[in-house]
Amino acid sequence: MKKLGRYVHRLLMVAGLAGCIAACSDEFREIEPTGRPILIDNSASVVGASNAVMRQFRKGGFLVWGVNTRQGIFARGADYSDTKFHVNNMWPARVSYDSLWTYSPLAEWTTDDRLTLLAAAPADLEGSGFSFMDDYAETRRFSLLFTGKAVPSGPLFVAPVQQRIYSPGGTGLKFSFDDMLSRMYFRITNEMEVDIDSLLSVSVEGSFPMGGKSVAPRILLDEQMLQWENLENGHLDFPQQRAVRFDADSVPIGKSAATLSDSPLYFFPGTADSVRFEIRYTLRDSVGVFVRYAALSRILRMEQGKNYLFEITLVKH
Known about the structure:
single chain; mainly beta
């Protein structure tokens, strides 16, 4: 009987030890990850862009916003302006280019995610006069609203909204941007029978027809679609915008100087009326150096994503 008791005691001790080992192994069990980092595809580019535009695009970088819609594109009644729907580290992510598109810290894409994504450039978007609007909770659309003065200070590139479902073997996010503004360059020719000592600037001011309740240009972003809001009602006056970088300071008789390829003026697409161009330059005479200007007015038609070269000749009156 004593032998049986010792045997049972020994068996319980072994069982207790086995239980301890089992508990310890559970405690240190390696947990498999359920997602993967959200990467940016290296082929993100502007549709039909020239080399100069692509250089500008890469130099400025871009922003990516991510919204987790999980059960569908948009759930009825959900307020997507609530931060609980925003993808961590992607509201927005500032993406920069150095041989590859990168951002940090990376967002994580987990298996139960269905993401709605949009992107716009440059990364300093507000510096170019635009801000992102999260009114999609009400309208089921995203939008970019012009918030600065009435002329953009830089380029604006926007990619259509994407709907993406988690895929373990998937590649990085690929964005194809559209160039949303038009660009204006100048070539000034001197036919005044006297050398121009210094070509100082070309300025433009005028008025565009603009619509919307706030008389402010707005881009509506939907899945695979970009659209400028109706711009037919009322007018938006824009203050003087000035180009100051030329390929020459002085302009001899019969010669020309042009604005540099990386310093255009940017405008909204559309037809502007009462546009005034003003060229400021200096001439030397027996009294001294004087700043003078010549001006002309015309109607201006600007199309989205296009470059316009204005050739202006200064003549002696």
